[in-house]
C-alpha cells in the first residue's frame, strides 16, 4: 500500500466501529469445544489472543448457512 494512504479511510463518515472480523464455519458445535480443549490452543493461541484481542468488547453473532442448488 502506498505510504500516502496509510491512516486514511475511504469510507468517510461510513467507517465502522471495529477493526477486525472473523467468520468461522463449523459442521457442528462439538468442533468448537474440541478446539478450546486442544493443548496447542490453550498453550499458544489463547495467550496470543489475550495480547491482541479485547475480549470484553467482542460481539458475537451466530447464524446458519443454507445452501440451495438449482
TrEMBL record:
Top-level division of the source organism's lineage: Eukaryota
All copies of domain EthD, residue ranges = 8-55
Q: Which InterPro entries match?
A: EthD_dom (IPR009799)
Name a GO molecular-function annotation.
oxidoreductase activity
Q: Which Pfam families match?
A: EthD (PF07110)
Family per UniProt? Belongs to the tpcK family.
The protein in question is named EthD domain-containing protein
Question: What is the protein's species of origin?
Answer: Aspergillus tanneri
Lineage here is: Eukaryota, Fungi, Dikarya, Ascomycota, Pezizomycotina
